[in-house]
Specification:
It is built from 13 helices and 20 strands. The chain is α+β, with helices and mostly antiparallel strands and 411 residues long. It has two domains: 160 residues, DNA methylase specificity domains (Adenine-n6-DNA-methyltransferase TaqI, Chain A, domain 2); 150 residues, Alpha-Beta Complex (Adenine-n6-DNA-methyltransferase TaqI, Chain A, domain 2), CATH 3.90.220. Strands 2-8-5-6 form a four-stranded antiparallel sheet. The longest helix is centred in the middle third of the chain and has 47 residues.
Amino acid sequence: MSHLNYLEKLLDGVEVEWLPLKDVLVRTKGTKITAGQMKTLHKDGAPLKIFAGGKTVAFVDFKDIPEKDVNREPSIIVKSRGVIEFEYYEKPFSHKNEMWSYYSDNNAIHIKFIYHFLKLHERYFQGIGCRMQMPQIATPDTDKFLVPIPCPDNPEKSLAIQSEIVRILDKFTALTAELTAELTAELNMRKKQYNYYRDQLLSFDEGEVEWKTLGEVTRLITKGTTPKGFVSSGVNFIKLESFDDNQIKPDKFMFITPEVHNRELKRSILEEGDILFAIAGATIGKCAIVDKSVLPANTNQALAIVRLSHEVNVKFAFYYMQTTAMTDYIARFNKTSAQPNINLKQMSEFKIPVPSINEQTRIVKILDNFNTLTSSIKEGLPREIELRQKQYEYYRDLLLNFPKSHSNEVA
């Protein structure tokens, strides 16, 4: 028996029946409510949670929606548009009517067992959704999806097997969440420490170094333009969504044709070492350095292109543009604005310190080490968080890898 994995030992030779989800759980509808109504009705501490797409939720009183739209059973909520995912919830709730949910009315079916199985196959549903311009799935996609029911002829034993799998996965989920929380807290502490030392290293008194405006130390400060359309492949088009922790991630690129890149958007052709700086919106001030690996590339009007002269180390300027000096500078122009922004003229008038190149290089080396620890997925704490999640997924895959005689994804 030593060669058998845990699932095989747990099943101990019992049969597994594959059934459409609609034959296992009860599907329920949501409530007719708009995003505006959710915002208006929301009250901190209210007892009824309303789910919308992504992470959007509202808490309302029971009187705020029809009683028939309130779900009171532990359920699996299907987030069917945009970010496609499943969420388990035990307290009374409802959701927007383009979503749906499932609960169990069968004492031999453990709702969390089905939830864990659906989470295992979340990417399958996301793949279906990506076929649409706006990622979305329909009720038949989940209704027809086949789920495993171990020992179908013995409800008591079936429930015992499901419950044991749920117990193990819940324990791993809780452990993963606890460890992730600890690592996230550590990461946030390191980021605060990094930000403190960065601001200290880049703090200079008047007269200690020469101060110049960005306009004086750049060859170019401009911004991009949104093209009339995009193509499936071609020249990389970098939007703010391509940024991840001040790094540019290729998996979020859009594409334009070489003709559009070289002619229509000629003034915003990016070069290696350019600093892209968000000049509007909630993420104003976020920036990243253009690496040669992403070239050729272009960008849009939400990002300023800062191209430095040889007088200033690119990374030195990059780090200084992330300090509280830049945050405070932006705030000067947005005291009453709900949508913060900074224009190119204001950008060019921002002053930065210009110590010797040797001193700039020394500071950059120190900050690079801090940046690696806090930001690098390969060397820093984020990698540890990713490994914890992969560990949970490994055991989930092991416990939910039921034998199939043929393709069992949909009926």
